[in-house]
Request: fold
Amino acid sequence: MPIIEPSIRPPAEANSFLLQVTTGCSSNICTFCGAYKGKPFRVKSVEEIDQDIKMGAALSPLTRRAFLMDGDALALDNQRLIPVLQKIKVFFPKMSRIASYANGYNIVNRSQAELMELSANRLKLIYMGLESGSQSVLDACKKRSTRDEMIEAISKAKEAGLKTSVMVLIGLGGKKNSLRHVKETVQALNWMQPHYLSFLSVILIPGTELYEEAQRGDFEELSPLELLQETYDMISGLELKATVFRSDHASNFLPLEGRLPADKDRLLAMLDSALQGKILMRPEYLRGL
Reply:
């Protein structure tokens, strides 16, 4: 079966077998997100999923990685999800890692035994959108998972042998809550200690609630320099022990990547140079300064 668009996947999963287990997102109320507007949440039938696996295997049977889509594949309980993971292994004998997006409540509502069962069946990486470590910022953008849920979810996942990739939205607090967004996100990340960390920048998407808030003047968007300053302040406060960091999404003004803590000083120096105008950012953003 063809993938039902629109669909998204992390950049790191570009070469993975993309298996659409669900369509849409079971929450789909975040004010900043337009990914699944107009796309109702639905769990694909067993027959559809089986057909997709067989078609994918026929095209590339030696694929080693798979990614479960759409935004909420882990909304399926283990009784429904484990057979999918097992079938992937049957048709892709070289499969070594399966990954998926996950909401905090998908993880905390599972027992440790259930999470370990997922890991044993090659679900090895989950991508979680923390967005902000500030509960007030999360409440304002209607994020369904709470900060505490997401912190607990990361801890439970790691104990079960799952690697974790956490995403943060720079600028989500707007001008009003920028300092709170930075401070409390740093605190949450230091508690989480994720394996991977990605920074993206807020983009106001027409048709989303956040866009409408900005149009009314209820949300004041950060300038490119202010977004860089937030990035600098967050990295400055991080005390991560072994995390791969990336801030190279198309929404980011200055591509950054490295390992923390080893590359922390280098990343801060690059950001400082950008803030001082000593290095150029992506040309398409210079007119916004």
Notes: Strands lie at 17-20, 22-23, 42-43, 65-69, 97-101, 123-131, 163-170, 196-201, 243-247, 256-260. Residues 282-289 have pLDDT under 50 and may be disordered.
